[in-house]
Amino acid sequence: MFDDHLRGIIPDINDQQLEQLREQDFANWFKEYVEKNEVEERIYQIAQGPGRTVQSYKGMPRRISSSRGRGRGRQDTMSQPMQSLRDEQNEDQSIGHEPLQLPVDTQVSPTPLQLGGQVAASSSSSVRTRGPNLGQPTPVNPTNRQMIRLRGLVFLDISVSRSITNDIKMHFTAPWKTWAEIPNKMKDELFGKFQGRYMWDETEEQNVRLAWDKLGKDRFRDILNRARNEMLVKHKKSDIAYLHNLGPNWMKAEVWNELVAYWSSPEWRKKSQSAKINRMTVKDGSITKHACGSIKIEIHEDRLTKKLGRPPNKIEVFRATHTKKGADGVFIDGKSQRVDEDYASAIVEKYGSNSESPPIFDMDKWIEVSGGFNKGRVYGFGSSAKSQTSGSSTSQSCTSAYPGSSSQPAMTQEEIQQLIDEKASRMRAEMMAEILDQVRKELKTTGGTQFATSSHPTTSDSTNP
Predict the structure, then answer these.
(1) What CA–CA distance (Å, rounded) separates 219 from 236?
(2) pLDDT value at residue 275
(3) Which of 98, 160, 384, 418 is the most exposed place for a label (fewest CB within 10 A)?
(4) Do 153 and 217 reside in the same domain of the chain?
(5) Is the separation of the CB atoms in 411 and 388 below 8 Å?
């Protein structure tokens, strides 16, 4: 029935697409189908089952023992209870006993599909189901889409990241090395799926696509990193070159093998080693650490707002993300403790210990004591600190906007540059397509149809009379 429903909407759907949509949307479709009272009588019969009624009995027959031998005793034991049951059943029916109706448990244990509504596109073993990592399901009724919020260019709902991850895995049809290599048509399709799950305030419309693209870029990079590392561990290999035909179950073998060939090249290995060295570089006596995990600072700040019942100041956010869990006030490393102490001393020095109105947070002073910008990021707050500096000593006399309010922080230079690069890439691709199309048309009109399908003629073709 669900398959017929999909084929009616998408007549040219293939079996692979049908299977993906079935795993993705069936649970929600069935739920709404039941709620609309369109369930056939057959479903009710199946739900009740053949054992929906039983007869009540006054007692169970006794086991018959016999001293005549094991065989005879077993025969009596097997036959006598059945006869007793038949006798008591006839007796109960003759005196008008009503059948005892067993209650039907309508609450069904949630399945992985009901938990997430997404295909578990994971590179881990099929036996291990990571239900919590499934994304937001796509509702049949668009009005049931989940409302999401933004802070800057960060989605505050963690399911958004999971949904984008699953969508990328389900549509990984070519050996793309970076997010920029994915065709714009495919990105539009992925964003269409995102729109089918979520809705947002119209005041945030302009930034939603930018935030989605930014998160997609981060998740794409993380997906490939995880796939490489997990396959190396799973197959007990020490070199990526040995992972030929040993890819994750959500990626086609030919796509994976092309990526393995790229990762095995000397150029990529050199670049990877350089990045590894940079990550392990000791700065200020230790490698930079935090307790955020893969969750953005903005999401931690939103969670802290709900916990405190008010917007936290930046120092509270920093301490919440740089102290050990279960250890009250113990910082994650020496640098975080030093910066916290130096900032407190700098504020006292600047405003005095008896100041009646010190700023809630002075981002300029924080940048000064933490070592300044490093690749556009500020220690403890990432790139979000850029939009919170003003060059004055009282740059942060208030906290960021309360979640849900219409005001949003200004875009950072990094985010603006990302937008410019994205638009420039799209314009170049569109311009090149137009030029090639025009060249083909001109060649056809001049009789050069043999060149219409090739933008790189061979030497022999160009010299032949």
Answers:
(1) 25
(2) 77
(3) 98
(4) yes
(5) no
Tell me how far apart the terminal alpha carbons of the chain are, to the nearest angstrom.
63
The reply to whether 150 and 238 lie within a common domain is yes
Q: Which residue has the tokens 């001049």?
A: 446
Domain of residue 309: give its range: 297-411
How many angstroms separate the CA atoms of 230 and 248, rounded?
9
Q: Is residue 64 part of a domain?
A: no
Residues 406 and 364 in one domain: yes
CA distance 115 to 112: 5
The verdict on residue 245 lying in a domain is: yes
Q: Helix or strand or coil: residue 76? A: helix
pLDDT tens profile 68-119: 444 444 444 444 545 544 454 454 444 444 444 444 444 444 443 333 333 3
- Phi and psi of 128, rounded to 5°? -95, 115
Same structural domain for residues 267 and 355?
no
Q: pLDDT, tens digit, for every residue of 10-24?
A: 666 777 777 777 777
Cβ neighbourhood burial of 271 (10 Å; 0-12, 13-18, 19+) = exposed
β 373-374/377-378 pair status: antiparallel
C-alpha span between 93 and 419 (Å, rounded): 80
- Residue 136 is assigned to a structural domain of this protein: no
Q: Where are the alpha helices (DSSP H) in 235-265?
A: 253-263
Q: Is 464 exposed, middle or buried (0-12, 13-18, 19+ CB in 10 A)?
A: exposed
- Rounded Cα distance between 204 and 183, Å, is 25
* Distance separating alpha carbons of residues 291 and 320, to the nearest angstrom: 8
Are 187 and 314 in the same domain?
Answer: no
Residues 310 and 209 in one domain: no
- Same domain for 394 and 366? yes
- Does 133 fall in a domain? no
Same domain, 147 and 172: yes
d(CA 208, CA 164): 13
Identify whether the C-beta of residue 284 lies closer than 8 Å to the C-beta of residue 159. Answer: no
Structural tokens at position 214: 């930014």
CB 314 within 8 A of CB 363: yes
